[in-house]
Design a protein that fits this description.
Radius of gyration of chain B: 19 Å
CATH architecture of chain A: Orthogonal Bundle
Helix content of chain B: over 70%
Largest interface: A-B, 46 and 43 residues
Shape of chain B: globular
Oligomer: heterodimer
Number of domains of chain A: 1
Number of domains of chain B: 1
Distance between the termini of chain B: 42 Å
Radius of gyration of chain A: 19 Å
Helix content of chain A: over 70%
Order of helices and strands of chain A: HHHHEEHHHHHHHH
Strand order of the largest sheet of chain A: 1-2
Structural class of chain B: mainly alpha
Order of helices and strands of chain B: HHHHHHEEEHHHHEHHH
Chain lengths: ~290, ~290
């Protein structure tokens, strides 16, 4: 029964990891920007939600709307005022990475200073577990997480496959030069990628604040998992990122079955490490070792 | 006051060793490691364990710490041989997180969160370095040796091969360079040298715990290299001086609560990294593109 419980927990966590990772993968695939501050987006959205919903009692629709706006603004501003100027002068991977990393460090400490470094969580009737079978506890959030993650993923696939902006986004990841030739503006499309990618962290951030809780360092953790899922899944493959996120969530929880819970994070990195050394292109990716 | 300055100067020396060794792989080999604090920690733990249970001889501690750290560097060299850029950063980050888990959970060896306390002062040929001024001298000599050795290495044919690999791996390969061997050796050198800083740190403070070897520390070392100027001789030294002095300067600002100094410090260098990348990507001591 413990095993079933762990798998259910794993799927719930994994669905949220998958969603965050898809956001990162979307941005990285389309713009080639290693958006290290994606974890900061997650933290911003989670803390804005916490503040509006649990501290100011504004009700969930307004809180979710406000934290979506905040996170999209953050992503787009970062693209416009940090990444674009850097890429104009010196487009090397390293410069962009360092800047993004710097932003993540600033945000993490800002949140720590404003909200404190301890654990906080949003209490909600949805996160109360119900005993569905002897010894098996499931909270409504588990179902919500899985349904929302699946819905977002399907919606994203439809968007990328059916709409003009979606197709332009995919085109940008293939060849920015060709996008320009066709009279589209790569800058506008990349803004769109940032808006969309950042938006995808909102459901995960809100649900995480209700289930496992938040602390100031959560951005870093989320970032690590998103990167790990993107690489394990194969860069450029959203399907891969989603599957890998799910896999990491389940693996992390199954680890508790045999090891102390402190080691569950280590499991993620053993998986990542194995993939990097043995199969750098991931599940579905193309080879990118150069 | 003198003791205060000596303390800062000693920490600057230790941080400078870390920055110089990190700059060696970042600036010349193009390996952007976010796991430098791991080797710092390994050096410190090896020295502390030896001092507590076996010998207080500094030279023996150095030899062992460098060997262990160097061997462990294979864990970093392995992904470095397979992938570059973003992927390697991710791998090194993973390694760092893993190492912190080991440092805090392997309680019988590392003392867990409580760390190792009461590390006896180090000795060379029976002379114990108890006086802080003497220890400062020791740290300064160590720093000078590391800088000198690294500089010599960078200017040798090995260093030129390294830069060739950084700029174009396939071109270096085409010229018959053994890319895998050169990369592995450079990571080995950097990690082994980094361990000396760990040994000095453990012997100096006589107390270590996992807090000093976390991802925050790795970030700080990377910030030192970047702020100072990556791939330059003086850059990491300048970066180490500035970022070590930063918390000391911040304590003089009366409106800052003491508990927030760590955060403010990180915010300052985070912001410095962002602004530098936008306006001066080569760092404070950076050379213009093309001159290098």
């Amino acid at each position: 029964m413990l095993l079933v419980q762990l798998i259910i927990n794993g799927v719930q966590v994994g669905a949220l990891y998958g969603l965050t990772a898809v956001g990162f993968s979307l941005i990285f695939g389309a713009t080639k920007i290693f958006h290290f501050a994606h974890g900061a987006s997650f933290a911003i959205s989670a803390y804005v939600f916490y503040y509006l919903y649990a501290v100011l009692n504004l009700g969930w629709p307004i809180s979710i709307l406000a934290c979506s706006i905040a996170v999209v603004l953050f992503g787009v501003t970062l693209d416009r005022y940090v990444y674009v100027p850097i890429q104009r002068s010196n487009g090397s991977f390293f410069t962009v990475f360092v800047a993004s990393f710097g932003v993540a460090v600033v945000i993490q400490n800002l949140i720590g200073t404003v909200f404190g470094r301890g654990f906080i969580s949003v209490s909600s009737a949805l996160s109360k577990s119900v005993e569905v079978a002897p010894g098996l506890y499931v909270a409504p959030t588990a179902g919500i997480a899985i349904v929302i993650a699946a819905a977002c993923f399907v919606a994203l696939q439809l968007f990328l496959g059916r709409t003009n902006i979606g197709i332009a986004l995919r085109a940008l990841s293939e060849s920015p030069a060709l996008v320009r030739t066709f009279g589209l503006n790569p800058k506008a499309i990349s803004t769109c990628a940032f808006a969309l990618g950042s938006l995808l962290v909102v459901p995960a951030a809100v649900l995480t604040s209700m289930t496992s809780g938040l602390n100031a360092a959560i951005g870093g953790r989320v970032m690590l998992i998103s990167i790990a899922a993107t690489i394990v899944g194969g860069v450029g493959s959203l399907r891969g990122a989603a599957c890998a996120g799910l896999l990491l969530g389940v693996a992390e929880n199954l680890a508790v079955w045999r090891f102390d819970p402190q080691w569950s994070e280590a499991v993620t990195f053993i998986i990542l490490f194995t993939f990097i050394v043995l199969r750098p292109s991931g599940f579905f990716g193309r080879v990118v070792t150069s | 006051m003198l003791a205060y300055v000596a303390n800062l100067a000693t920490l600057i020396c230790i941080n400078a060793i870390l920055a110089v060794t990190l700059n060696f792989i970042m600036g010349y080999a193009g390996i952007f490691s976010l796991a430098h604090a791991v080797f710092f920690g390994v050096g410190a733990y090896v020295a502390a364990l030896m001092a507590l249970q076996w010998t207080d001889s500094l030279l023996l501690q150095l030899a062992f710490a460098m060997t262990v750290s160097g061997l462990l560097s294979a864990a970093l060299a392995l992904p470095a041989l397979r992938v570059r850029g973003d992927y390697f950063v991710a791998a090194s980050l993973g390694f760092q997180v893993l190492a912190v888990t080991v440092f805090s959970e392997w309680k019988s060896v590392t003392g867990g969160i409580g760390g190792l306390v009461g590390i006896p002062p180090a000795t060379i040929a029976g002379h114990a370095f108890v006086n802080p001024m003497e220890f400062l001298g020791l740290a300064a000599v160590a720093l000078a040796l590391v800088v000198l050795l690294t500089r010599t290495l960078v200017r040798s044919s090995f260093g030129r091969s390294l830069k060739a690999i950084r700029d174009s791996e396939s071109a270096a390969l085409a010229f018959g360079k053994n890319v895998a061997l050169i990369k592995t050796l450079s990571v080995f050198y950097s990690s082994a040298m980094c361990a000396t800083a760990g040994v000095l740190y453990a012997d100096y403070l006589s107390f270590i715990n996992v807090e000093s070897f976390t991802i925050d520390a790795s970030t700080l070392f990377m910030a030192m290299v970047i702020v100072g100027g990556i791939g330059t001789v003086w850059g990491p030294l300048v970066g180490a001086v500035l970022l070590t002095l930063l918390p000391a300067v911040l304590t003089y600002l009366p409106f800052l609560p003491q508990t927030e100094i760590g955060s403010v410090q990180q915010m300052v260098y985070g912001l410095a990294m962002v602004l530098l990348m936008i306006f001066k990507p080569d760092g404070l001591m950076g050379i213009k593109q093309g001159e290098a």
